[in-house]
Amino acid sequence: MDWSKIGKRIAIEIEKEVLQYFGRKDRSYVIGTSPSGDETEIFDKVSEDIALKYLEPLGVNIVSEELGAIDKGSEWTVVIDPIDGSFNFINGIPFFGFCFGVFKNNNPYFGLTYEFLTKRFYEAKIGEGAFLNGKRIKVKDFNPKDVIISYYPDENVDIKKLREKIKRVRIFGAFGLEMCYVANGILDAIFDVRPKVRAVDIASSYIICKEAGAIITDENGEELKFELNATDRIKVLVANSKEMLNIILDII
User: Which residues make up each annotated binding site for Mg(2+)?
Assistant: First the structure.
Protein backbone atom coordinates (compact mmCIF):
# COMPACT_ATOMS: atom_id res chain seq x y z
CA MET A 1 0.00 0.00 0.00
CA ASP A 2 1.15 3.52 -0.77
CA TRP A 3 0.75 5.00 2.70
CA SER A 4 2.07 8.38 1.64
CA LYS A 5 -0.58 8.73 -1.05
CA ILE A 6 -3.35 7.52 1.27
CA GLY A 7 -2.35 9.88 4.07
CA LYS A 8 -2.10 12.87 1.76
CA ARG A 9 -5.50 12.20 0.21
CA ILE A 10 -7.09 12.09 3.65
CA ALA A 11 -5.33 15.27 4.78
CA ILE A 12 -6.32 17.25 1.69
CA GLU A 13 -9.96 16.19 1.91
CA ILE A 14 -10.12 16.99 5.63
CA GLU A 15 -8.69 20.44 4.96
CA LYS A 16 -11.26 21.05 2.23
CA GLU A 17 -14.22 19.97 4.35
CA VAL A 18 -13.47 21.38 7.81
CA LEU A 19 -12.05 24.84 7.15
CA GLN A 20 -15.64 26.12 7.24
CA TYR A 21 -15.40 25.57 11.02
CA PHE A 22 -12.02 27.27 11.48
CA GLY A 23 -12.36 30.01 14.08
CA ARG A 24 -16.16 29.67 13.98
CA LYS A 25 -17.41 28.75 17.43
CA ASP A 26 -20.88 29.66 16.22
CA ARG A 27 -20.78 26.80 13.70
CA SER A 28 -19.22 24.12 15.87
CA TYR A 29 -20.72 22.24 18.79
CA VAL A 30 -19.90 19.34 21.10
CA ILE A 31 -21.36 16.02 19.98
CA GLY A 32 -19.83 13.64 22.52
CA THR A 33 -16.80 12.57 24.52
CA SER A 34 -13.73 10.73 23.25
CA PRO A 35 -12.40 7.53 24.89
CA SER A 36 -9.76 9.66 26.65
CA GLY A 37 -12.41 11.95 28.13
CA ASP A 38 -12.00 14.97 25.86
CA GLU A 39 -14.97 16.69 24.26
CA THR A 40 -15.61 15.81 20.62
CA GLU A 41 -16.63 18.74 18.42
CA ILE A 42 -18.48 18.36 15.12
CA PHE A 43 -15.33 19.20 13.12
CA ASP A 44 -13.48 16.39 14.93
CA LYS A 45 -16.17 13.92 13.86
CA VAL A 46 -16.28 15.18 10.27
CA SER A 47 -12.50 14.83 10.03
CA GLU A 48 -12.48 11.35 11.51
CA ASP A 49 -15.26 10.16 9.20
CA ILE A 50 -13.21 11.24 6.19
CA ALA A 51 -10.24 9.25 7.44
CA LEU A 52 -12.39 6.20 8.11
CA LYS A 53 -13.83 6.37 4.59
CA TYR A 54 -10.35 5.67 3.26
CA LEU A 55 -9.07 3.33 5.95
CA GLU A 56 -11.96 0.97 6.72
CA PRO A 57 -11.99 -0.64 3.24
CA LEU A 58 -8.32 -1.55 3.74
CA GLY A 59 -9.16 -3.82 6.67
CA VAL A 60 -6.46 -2.30 8.89
CA ASN A 61 -6.56 -1.75 12.63
CA ILE A 62 -7.37 1.87 13.44
CA VAL A 63 -6.62 3.99 16.49
CA SER A 64 -8.22 7.43 16.46
CA GLU A 65 -8.63 10.18 19.03
CA GLU A 66 -12.42 10.32 18.81
CA LEU A 67 -13.26 6.70 18.00
CA GLY A 68 -10.73 4.81 20.07
CA ALA A 69 -9.31 1.51 18.80
CA ILE A 70 -10.72 -0.81 16.13
CA ASP A 71 -8.99 -4.19 15.97
CA LYS A 72 -9.42 -5.95 12.62
CA GLY A 73 -6.72 -8.53 13.27
CA SER A 74 -4.49 -6.93 10.65
CA GLU A 75 -0.69 -6.69 10.74
CA TRP A 76 -1.19 -2.99 9.95
CA THR A 77 -2.31 -0.40 12.50
CA VAL A 78 -2.98 3.20 11.50
CA VAL A 79 -2.94 5.75 14.32
CA ILE A 80 -4.57 9.08 13.49
CA ASP A 81 -5.34 12.43 15.04
CA PRO A 82 -7.53 14.11 12.40
CA ILE A 83 -7.11 17.56 13.99
CA ASP A 84 -3.99 17.97 16.12
CA GLY A 85 -4.51 21.29 17.89
CA SER A 86 -8.32 21.34 18.08
CA PHE A 87 -8.35 24.25 20.53
CA ASN A 88 -6.23 26.31 18.15
CA PHE A 89 -8.53 25.37 15.28
CA ILE A 90 -11.81 26.41 16.85
CA ASN A 91 -10.30 29.62 18.23
CA GLY A 92 -8.93 30.72 14.88
CA ILE A 93 -5.26 30.15 15.71
CA PRO A 94 -3.60 28.99 12.45
CA PHE A 95 -1.49 26.19 13.89
CA PHE A 96 -3.07 22.75 13.64
CA GLY A 97 -2.37 19.55 11.76
CA PHE A 98 -3.26 16.04 10.70
CA CYS A 99 -1.32 13.10 12.16
CA PHE A 100 -1.13 9.75 10.35
CA GLY A 101 1.13 7.05 11.77
CA VAL A 102 1.42 3.54 10.34
CA PHE A 103 2.71 0.55 12.31
CA LYS A 104 3.42 -2.96 11.03
CA ASN A 105 3.07 -5.65 13.68
CA ASN A 106 3.13 -2.79 16.23
CA ASN A 107 6.49 -1.54 14.96
CA PRO A 108 6.88 1.99 13.52
CA TYR A 109 6.72 1.95 9.71
CA PHE A 110 5.57 5.27 8.21
CA GLY A 111 4.57 8.68 9.53
CA LEU A 112 2.94 11.67 7.89
CA THR A 113 2.05 14.91 9.64
CA TYR A 114 0.36 17.66 7.64
CA GLU A 115 0.43 21.30 8.68
CA PHE A 116 -2.87 22.74 7.48
CA LEU A 117 -2.92 26.12 5.74
CA THR A 118 0.84 26.08 5.02
CA LYS A 119 0.63 22.95 2.81
CA ARG A 120 3.59 21.37 4.63
CA PHE A 121 3.73 17.59 4.43
CA TYR A 122 6.22 16.08 6.87
CA GLU A 123 6.77 12.38 6.26
CA ALA A 124 9.17 9.53 6.95
CA LYS A 125 9.51 5.81 6.43
CA ILE A 126 11.70 3.86 8.81
CA GLY A 127 15.22 3.62 7.45
CA GLU A 128 14.67 6.11 4.62
CA GLY A 129 14.99 9.52 6.28
CA ALA A 130 12.56 12.37 6.98
CA PHE A 131 11.23 14.82 4.42
CA LEU A 132 9.30 18.07 4.15
CA ASN A 133 7.48 18.32 0.81
CA GLY A 134 10.07 16.01 -0.70
CA LYS A 135 13.14 17.75 0.72
CA ARG A 136 15.31 15.90 3.25
CA ILE A 137 15.22 17.38 6.76
CA LYS A 138 17.15 16.79 9.97
CA VAL A 139 17.44 18.24 13.45
CA LYS A 140 19.74 21.22 13.83
CA ASP A 141 23.07 21.09 15.61
CA PHE A 142 22.97 22.05 19.28
CA ASN A 143 24.13 25.59 20.02
CA PRO A 144 23.68 26.66 23.67
CA LYS A 145 23.53 30.32 22.63
CA ASP A 146 20.71 29.77 20.16
CA VAL A 147 18.23 27.44 21.85
CA ILE A 148 14.48 27.62 21.32
CA ILE A 149 12.06 25.09 22.78
CA SER A 150 8.38 24.40 23.39
CA TYR A 151 7.26 22.90 26.67
CA TYR A 152 4.24 21.85 28.72
CA PRO A 153 5.38 21.65 32.37
CA ASP A 154 3.93 20.25 35.56
CA GLU A 155 4.34 21.81 39.01
CA ASN A 156 7.76 20.17 39.47
CA VAL A 157 9.47 21.92 36.56
CA ASP A 158 11.90 24.58 37.77
CA ILE A 159 10.73 27.46 35.60
CA LYS A 160 13.37 29.86 36.94
CA LYS A 161 16.12 27.40 36.14
CA LEU A 162 14.62 26.79 32.72
CA ARG A 163 14.61 30.50 31.93
CA GLU A 164 18.24 30.78 33.02
CA LYS A 165 19.32 28.10 30.58
CA ILE A 166 16.85 28.67 27.75
CA LYS A 167 16.08 32.20 26.62
CA ARG A 168 13.55 31.47 23.92
CA VAL A 169 10.34 29.54 24.57
CA ARG A 170 7.38 29.17 22.23
CA ILE A 171 4.25 27.18 23.04
CA PHE A 172 2.14 26.46 19.96
CA GLY A 173 -0.58 24.11 21.22
CA ALA A 174 -0.29 21.17 18.80
CA PHE A 175 2.24 18.66 20.14
CA GLY A 176 2.50 16.39 17.10
CA LEU A 177 3.08 19.32 14.78
CA GLU A 178 5.57 20.88 17.17
CA MET A 179 7.56 17.65 17.12
CA CYS A 180 7.98 18.15 13.39
CA TYR A 181 9.45 21.57 14.12
CA VAL A 182 12.19 19.75 16.03
CA ALA A 183 12.67 17.39 13.09
CA ASN A 184 12.96 20.37 10.73
CA GLY A 185 15.46 22.26 12.89
CA ILE A 186 13.09 25.05 13.91
CA LEU A 187 12.91 24.00 17.57
CA ASP A 188 15.69 22.41 19.59
CA ALA A 189 13.29 20.49 21.81
CA ILE A 190 9.76 20.00 23.05
CA PHE A 191 8.55 18.24 26.17
CA ASP A 192 5.31 17.51 27.99
CA VAL A 193 5.55 16.19 31.55
CA ARG A 194 2.00 16.88 32.81
CA PRO A 195 1.30 14.11 31.39
CA LYS A 196 -1.23 14.77 28.63
CA VAL A 197 0.24 13.23 25.47
CA ARG A 198 -1.36 10.16 23.87
CA ALA A 199 -0.27 7.84 21.08
CA VAL A 200 -2.60 9.59 18.64
CA ASP A 201 -0.75 12.85 19.31
CA ILE A 202 2.74 11.54 18.58
CA ALA A 203 2.59 8.32 16.50
CA SER A 204 3.28 9.94 13.14
CA SER A 205 5.72 12.59 14.32
CA TYR A 206 7.60 10.04 16.44
CA ILE A 207 8.64 8.32 13.22
CA ILE A 208 9.47 11.60 11.50
CA CYS A 209 11.58 12.80 14.42
CA LYS A 210 13.43 9.50 14.68
CA GLU A 211 14.33 9.61 11.00
CA ALA A 212 15.43 13.24 11.34
CA GLY A 213 17.88 12.34 14.12
CA ALA A 214 15.93 13.45 17.20
CA ILE A 215 16.19 11.77 20.60
CA ILE A 216 12.81 10.79 22.08
CA THR A 217 12.56 9.66 25.70
CA ASP A 218 10.34 9.47 28.75
CA GLU A 219 10.81 11.72 31.79
CA ASN A 220 13.69 9.55 33.01
CA GLY A 221 15.68 9.84 29.82
CA GLU A 222 14.85 6.27 28.81
CA GLU A 223 13.79 5.38 25.28
CA LEU A 224 10.12 6.24 24.87
CA LYS A 225 7.69 3.34 24.68
CA PHE A 226 3.96 3.70 24.16
CA GLU A 227 0.95 1.51 23.50
CA LEU A 228 -1.13 1.97 20.36
CA ASN A 229 -4.33 3.14 22.01
CA ALA A 230 -6.25 6.39 22.40
CA THR A 231 -6.42 6.54 26.19
CA ASP A 232 -3.00 6.18 27.84
CA ARG A 233 -1.32 9.49 28.65
CA ILE A 234 2.44 9.69 28.82
CA LYS A 235 5.33 12.08 29.43
CA VAL A 236 7.44 12.83 26.35
CA LEU A 237 10.79 14.55 25.76
CA VAL A 238 12.02 15.27 22.23
CA ALA A 239 15.46 16.82 21.74
CA ASN A 240 17.90 17.44 18.91
CA SER A 241 20.91 16.21 20.92
CA LYS A 242 22.08 14.60 24.14
CA GLU A 243 23.22 18.03 25.35
CA MET A 244 19.73 19.43 24.90
CA LEU A 245 18.15 16.37 26.49
CA ASN A 246 20.37 16.68 29.56
CA ILE A 247 19.33 20.31 30.04
CA ILE A 248 15.67 19.26 30.03
CA LEU A 249 16.25 16.34 32.40
CA ASP A 250 18.02 18.69 34.80
CA ILE A 251 15.06 21.07 34.76
CA ILE A 252 12.24 18.58 35.21
Answer: 65, 81, 83-84, 201
